[in-house]
Write a structure and sequence with these properties.
The complex is a heterodimer of chains A (176) and B (455). Chain A is of the alpha+beta class. Chain A has a domain of 102 residues: Beta-lactamase Inhibitory Protein, Chain:B, domain 1 (2-Layer Sandwich). Chain A has three helices and five strands. Chain A has a five-stranded mixed sheet, with no helix packed on it. In chain A, a hairpin with a 5-residue loop joins strand 4 and strand 5. The N and C termini of chain A lie far apart (56 Å). Chain B has 455 residues and is mainly beta. Chain B has a single domain, classed as Porin (Beta Barrel). In chain B, strands 3-4-5-6-7-8-9-11-12-13-14-15-16-17-18-19 form a 16-stranded antiparallel beta barrel. Chain B has a two-stranded antiparallel sheet with strand order 1-2. In chain B, a hairpin with a 3-residue loop joins strand 8 and strand 9. The longest helix of chain B is centred in the N-terminal third of the chain and has 20 residues. Chain B is globular. The chains are: A alpha+beta (176), B mainly beta (455). Chains A and B meet through strand 3, strand 4 and strand 5 of A and helix 2 and helix 3 of B.
Chain lengths: 176, 455
């Protein structure tokens, strides 16, 4: 068994220069990926502008979504929430993108962001994922963050007294 | 373990497994309402179908809190004539069950033979719902159901509402519905009673019941009621019901036909503090009915005067949920038609029903409930006659009493698995040989496993 192992050593050494030569190519690839990401972000900004959504700085789509105006108000005795009375939640284009480096539509990004909302998450994590809600209020003593997306629908996140997510309803109609 | 018991156990597990397999991996609890409002299920339900205080307000408001994209119609004078959801608020319900009684039921055709004990219904019920806004201030809860025991598809619970908020302290509305108490807000009344909102569809049940507790609905009625809600706490409702059975015409072949209209009333007060709420109320109906059944729909009637008291307490914590419900119903039966026809021994009888139940859920996933039920009333040789095995009353009394216990598992917000056991101390007037055919009340003790999905 010793002979084959000894024979493998020069074979491995023979590949070291090749591996060293591959390092610059990796750096080049990384640069190309970054360039492509920048291009995608630029295209997303253009699409957002064409669709009438506010254009975000390039960094916004990679970090915390843009905050939408939030009001802290308890619902009326019999809550009525006509769409016109609610501020929009963070625009669809502002939702945090998924892990995929490929192009994601704004709706897909929003869908991905909502799918990451999990039971037990803290308020700060929800803000990072979804941005500020359209409205904050208490419902039968429970804290609710309500998100309204024009032409898409609305969703809500319910919190426990400790400020952790107890349940959510996404605008795309799935729960857990 | 006996082979029969093993088979029963396997069948039970099969029902539970089927329910789980059918459950979507991620789903929502009250599908079309949740889609419509954008609210998580817990906004309106503790665990379905029991309502939270907000769920009651949503119902009061005519199911119209809505923020979905709409198709609108507006006249040149900017009057809104149409507001439809782009997607109709449709939902689907599926129930499958396994039922086993302590002693098998007699065969319906062969003497001295028994039916198969341990019946699987697949489905027990399957329903299609339209539940949501129809137009501004107008909403509906409409249920069409396939019944697994009869193998037929028919119209089920329907509540169409128009609601207006007069000011911040007063809301009024109208309800058009087909089941007295289906429009009610609390889970004490017959249509939405909890716990034990679902029971076996194949096990024998007590033979005597009051009109307000399902008798009128079973006869087939439709009614309209007007309601008001003051200061977020006082509820007042007045309505009337007429016969509306599924029939080409209402004549002597029909049974329990309402003469004129049967008035229905409801009063309730609810106080909410923190995570607690307490309701106390009263409700009732007064119905004059032609017994029908080959008797012309004219002449004397039977008059049923029902009044009831009810109360519901809820604590809805983040993890712990407690509900206690109770109702007491008193019915006075003035049996002019039946007594005149020689079908009852007394010109008037009484019937009283008491139900008390308590449920606890942890984390809206794991729950248990315990309840007591009792129906007692006048002794009447002809009204409560010996009749057939299992369903007969050998002691001429309507009395049935017992306990129900239930364990619940809610793996998803829209999926419930319930294991229920009902134990009878008395059944149709007796504890032993209650039907005169040798059957005891305990022989009807029922094990019931239910799988229930909404999507």
């Amino acid at each position: 068994m010793r002979t084959p192992l000894v024979a493998l050593v020069p074979l491995a050494l023979a590949f070291v220069p090749a591996a060293r030569a591959a390092a610059p190519e990796g750096a080049t690839l990384q640069q190309e990926v970054k360039a492509l990401q920048a291009m995608v972000q630029d295209l997303q900004r253009r699409v957002s502008a064409l669709e009438g959504h506010p254009v975000l700085p390039a960094a916004a789509s990679q970090s915390v979504p843009q905050a939408a105006p939030a009001r802290s108000a308890a619902p009326a005795a019999v809550p009525q929430m006509p769409a016109a009375s609610l501020p929009q939640a963070a625009p669809i284009a502002a939702a945090q993108p998924g892990a995929s480096a490929g192009y994601m539509s704004p709706e897909a990004m929003l869908r991905a962001a909502w799918s990451k909302v999990g039971k037990g998450m803290q308020e700060g994590e929800i803000t990072r994922l979804l941005g500020a809600p359209s409205k904050k209020f208490t419902l039968d003593g429970r804290t609710v963050w309500y998100y309204y997306y024009p032409a898409t629908g609305s969703g809500s996140v319910f919190f426990t007294d400790e400020g952790r997510v107890s349940s959510r309803q996404s605008p795309f109609g799935w729960g857990w | 373990m006996q082979r029969g018991k093993l088979r029963s156990l396997i069948a039970g597990f099969a029902v539970a497994a089927a329910a789980l397999l059918l459950a979507p991996g991620s789903a929502q609890a009250v599908p079309s309402f949740a889609r419509q409002t954008g609210f998580a299920c817990e906004a309106c339900h503790t665990v379905f179908p029991e309502l939270t205080p907000y769920g009651r307000r949503f119902k009061l408001n005519g199911y119209t809190v809505d923020i979905l994209p709409q198709v609108s119609g507006i006249t040149p004078s900017k009057e809104q004539t149409l507001m439809l959801n782009q997607l109709p608020p449709l939902s689907f319900m599926f129930q499958t069950s396994y039922t086993s009684t302590k002693k098998a039921l007699p065969d319906t055709a062969l003497p001295d033979a028994f039916a198969k004990n341990g019946q699987v219904l697949f489905p027990q019920q399957a329903s299609l719902f339209y539940a949501g806004r129809i137009a501004p201030n107008l909403g509906a809860f409409v249920q069409m159901t396939y019944d697994g025991t009869s193998g037929s598809f028919g119209w089920d619970n329907t509540d169409i509402r128009y609601a207006r908020l007069a000011n911040e302290n007063f809301l009024w509305g109208l309800s058009l519905n087909n089941n007295p108490t289906v429009q009610d807000l609390w889970n004490t009344t017959s249509a939405w009673q909890s716990p034990f909102d679902q029971r076996s569809a194949t096990a024998p049940g007590p033979g005597a019941g009051t009109m307000i507790d399902g008798g009128l609905a079973d006869a087939g009625v439709a009614g309209v009621s007007a309601y008001g809600y003051l200061y977020n706490s006082v509820y007042v409702e007045l309505g009337a019901y007429r016969s509306a059975p599924a029939a080409a015409q209402i004549d002597s072949t029909s049974t329990n036909v309402v003469k004129g209209a049967a008035p229905y009333w409801r009063l309730a007060y609810e106080h909410q503090w923190g995570r607690h709420s307490l309701e106390v109320g009263a409700y009732g109906v007064e119905a004059k009915l032609y017994p029908g059944g080959d008797v012309p729909l004219s002449g004397p009637t039977n008059k049923y005067s029902d009044w009831a008291l009810d109360s519901q307490y809820q604590y809805i914590g983040d993890e712990n949920l407690v509900s206690v419900t109770a109702t007491y119903i008193h019915e006075k039966q003035t049996l002019d038609a039946t007594y005149g026809a020689g079908a009852s021994s007394n010109p008037s009888d009484t019937l009283k029903t008491l139900r008390i139940g308590a449920s606890y859920y942890y984390d809206r996933k794991y729950g248990g409930a315990l309840g007591y039920f009792s129906t007692t009333g006048s002794s009447d040789d002809l009204l409560y006659a010996q009749g057939d095995p299992v369903t007969g009353f050998a002691n001429s009394k309507p009395d049935s009493k017992g306990w129900t216990a239930e364990l619940d598992w809610v793996p998803y917000e829209n999926t419930k698995i319930a294991l229920q056991y009902t134990m009878y101390d008395k059944f149709n007037g007796g504890d032993t040989n209650y039907d005169g055919a040798g059957r005891n009340a305990k022989d009807n003790n029922t094990l019931y496993l239910l799988g229930w999905i909404n999507f």
